[in-house]
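Q: My labmate handed me this sequence with no annotations at all. I'd like to see what the chain might look like in three dimensions before we decide whether it's worth expressing. Could you predict it?
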Amino acid sequence: MNRNILLVLILLLASLTTVSADEMNPIAESATGDNQADADLAANGVRVLAWRNDTFDADEDGRLDAVRIVLALNITEAVESSDINILVEALHDGRSIELWANHSLSGAIETSIQVDAWGEGIHLLKLQMFDPQSGNLLADLDAGEWNMAPALATPSLKFNLNSPGWIETGDICKIKRVFVDEIGERYGQMGQRDLRGTPFTTYEWDTELDCSNWPAGEYTLHETYQNGLGQSTEAWLNLTINNRPPPAINLVAIGDGEEYGGTCLLSIAAETLDSTENWNYTWDTIPDHAVGDVSEVNCGSWQPGVHMVRVEIKNAQGISTTAGINLIRLTPIGVVDSNISENQSMAWPVRSGGDIDAKSDSGLYGAGSAALLIFLVCVIIGMRSKELEEDVMETPITAQNQMLTPAAAYQQQWGQTEEQTPVEISLEELPTTIDADGITWRRHPDGRMDWFDEGSSEWHSYE
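A: Here is what I predict for the chain of 463 residues:
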């Protein structure tokens, strides 16, 4: 009891120390300064012992940013306890904030309510007290006008982009969404953020966006926000993601055009600075050699003949490129691998260093057909030439106007016909080979392949 009396005396002494309104620290002594309010509060068993307003400049910018209303309360002698609801209402720029403090009194207490500025300019403060049982207004007091500027952060939005200057699909690309609204959080007036311009659905709690998996294109990100106090902000970000080019590669063949049994290796040489660690390789060969997902193929055991090789390389972003080659493996001359049976070696293509090998049955048939065709053409041409010569003999030509051909002039001078140089069909001394199907192939120095059509006796380029 002595402690309570001592506290009351201290509060009474503090209430006697007044501060002028010019110093923005007004104090109402003992009661509220409103007789009607004092009477209504006393009827409810509550008495205001002291009241003061403390001001703050938290950011030290020379302007007030908060006001704290401090009250010393006690019960009257007529009651043992009482309840009181205290409301501080702050008005600024057409909007108001309500701050409550509810207490059950059984003796003297000190309570406070702080108002933080949410905008620049005049904030009007009002102090009200209510009976919680009846809801009746017991006191309606003016807490002053305060010219303040907020120390709490106003709403702000920002995009922080972490990416290369030139962005391609699959590159590391992160967008951090920076958001602050200390005022809305302070007063429970948080609003909704709205983000537009992303290719996929995003949510308010997505603080970081992963744009490394976005499709190529131009993006304009726009985010807006407004809290319950009408404060708003927005942020913009322009972003361009370019298509990543397909992998630049070169299909390298070692042992192409060389004999079976020698070194033969197919490998992929990357001609790009991008990582090849996650590349996938799909090989397609004719004949089929069941090549797996590898970057190098050992073709040393492939049988002599022509092998069509095609490889598709796909990078980590799913972009692919294709390369191909016609690989030639020649029949060995001399000793054959002991692991190869005689029947297998007999099925190999017949090797030739130039003209078509006449020992090959299929080659012999083709050469015979071509010779027969040439013979028939020559017979037809000869018969036609004879008919033309007979027509010419029947037509009289004067000697002085007769024109001699070089052949006729040669015959008149030497008494014999000009020797005709026979025309020979040249295969250009290109290397040829005959595969297991009896088809004859020849290879050009640049790697192109021709095959011999026995029906027409012509060479055709292999596509």
